[in-house]
Amino acid sequence: METRTNNILVPIDFSEQSIITLGQTYNIAKLAQSEITILNVIATSTPVWSIFNDKEQKEIQLRLQSKLQNLADEISLQTNLKVNTIIEKGKVADTILAVAEKINARFIIIGITPSKIKNKIVGTIATKIVRESKCPVISIKGLVHRQGCDNILLPLDLSNTSAQKVKLAIWLGKFYKSTIHAVTVTSVKDTTTITKIEEQLLSVKKEINAGGVICTTKMIHLSSMHNYKMANALLDYGNEVLADLIMIMTQQEKEVRKFFIGSLATAIMNRSEIPVMSCIPEN
Known about the structure:
Order of helices and strands: EHEHHEHEHEEHEHEHEHHE
Number of strands: 10
Structural class: alpha/beta
């Protein structure tokens, strides 16, 4: 696993959701003994920005910098965490990704605004960040969250190699002293296949236990493997085990991931009120 700085990047636009997301970061930063870098991106490509002259743009930037620094000082006073501030201009997603790479961030934590529109697709900015980030991205949508990271939900597709995902889960579990709940969804009814899946889950449990992390296993049976049915089943189980984090891989196929994140991953991100950690697998 690539060594990264102990720095968590949190883009904010001062909306309610971004402030809630920032608040969720404090606990993670304390557990990880990390610094927080709060980033505000001035979207210079928007028509609104272009109506201001150079002097007005500079004044806006100075006001934003003051507001950001005041927020950072307040957080430091409340939490004793080191909080850095950055203001950049440019396209929002591209700038967030560039800053994350520049500071070699351990995580990016982003807020996703809840929508009243059923099954609304995750916003293009969030999708691009999740798809292209070189570090794990935690997306937070709900307005109320538990503190801590006692339980991690680990959905596994046992038809593909899950070695990298399990390795990362062990690292996270040790990092947060969590219990990992490994779960797989299947529609098969053949007893021989079911026995094989149970053996694979047991093997995963033994590997996680050997890594010093507590693990439970669960097989969920569905009549069909529709992505939204699978997502709902996983989220129901996540709520049952009081999951504080769901860990997903956003795409298994390297060639395909350049264009879109996996459809099941998207369904989970769309519907989850539980924070979701999205990781693009390596080669």
